[in-house]
Amino acid sequence: MRDVLAGQAMRLRGQMSACQCSTSLCAEHQQSFLDILGDVPDRLATMMVSVAKQSVTGGQGGSVKNDDDRPLPVDMGASEARLILRAELVAVVVRVQHCLGVQPRDNDRDVPGVCAWLARLMPTLARHPEATEWYGRIRKAYDRTTKAIDLPPERVRAGRCSCNAVLYTVAGRETVQCKPCGLRYNVADMQDAEIAKVRDYQDTAMTVIRVLGLAGIKIKRKRLENWAARGQLTTTEDHRGKIYTVGHVYDLYNQMEGKA
Questions:
Q1: Which domain covers residue 208, as residue numbers?
Q2: Are residues 207 and 241 in the same domain?
Q3: Within a 10 A sphere around the Cβ of 112, how many other Cβ atoms?
Q4: In the chain, how many domains are there?
Q5: Higher per-residue confidence, 58 vs 163
Q6: Do 143 and 215 fall within a single domain?
Q7: How far apart are the C-alpha atoms of 221 and 233, rounded to whole Å?
Q8: 41: helix, coil or strand?
Q9: Beta strands in the chain (DSSP E)
């Protein structure tokens, strides 16, 4: 997949000019399409973690009045965004198959394979009259997932107050106060509670870093890889490469930061 995207990127660098998407997909939007296709597999994996983060409904103060007010097992906003992105990807693939008369190979049937297949078709795909619509559909769905997982600039999620409000704070602060009810919390304790929900989740370095980022923990990939190289982290391997466990990384981070 990376080789496909790199080759297409080199072809496009010399073509970027004023947008001409009225007749075909311009070079700039082709490059944007390729960038999105390159990230979609990881984005869908990241969204699985966002979906697993519990979303709570209930009355004022977090009280549970009946079965309808009990905590939901998933974050419905993240779940919907993930499903929409996957559905739009499938819809575009079906349409490309019909319009261009081509089929993915048997080993291109999963999400990474389909994205690589679309990337390889970009020179032909971009000239089709529907190319701007295909790009627009996937771009819109992809942007929706970004809104579902991204945090406000320079702020991190601390956790959820007992009154059901989600609390954000500036990175590095030790405490956070809930504006609706006035309760004050220790940020580290709230982060512990957030991580407890996904401690056993395993994935690639970048996805684990994103998961920790959702709980306000910022770790650079190089630092994570150095820990693994020195044997400070236990990892496994599959077709994606080294696989890390969220809880193990979080515990070592606290130990290295002197918070354990």
A1: 198-260
A2: yes
A3: 17
A4: 3
A5: 163
A6: no
A7: 13
A8: helix
A9: 155-160, 166-170, 175-177, 184-186, 202-203, 236-238, 241-245
17 and 48 in a single domain? The answer is: yes
pLDDT in tens, 21-75: 566 888 889 988 999 999 898 888 877 765 555 443 333 333 333 333 344 444 5
Instruction: Single out the residue of 234, 213, 232, 36 nearest to residue 140, CA to CA.
Output: 36
Domain co-membership, 145 together with 169: no
For residue 250, the surrounding DSSP H or E stretch is helix 246-256
* 209 closest CA partner among 194, 225, 193: 225
Q: Helix count (H) and strand count (E) of the chain?
A: 10, 7
Query: What single letter denotes the amino acid at residue 59?
Result: G
Largest CA distance in the chain: 62
The residue with tokens 């971009």 is 126
Q: Which residues of 222-246 are buried (b: 16+ CB within 10 A; e: fewer)?
A: eebeebbeeeebebeeeeeeeebbb
Task: Give the single-character DSSP code of 255.
Answer: H
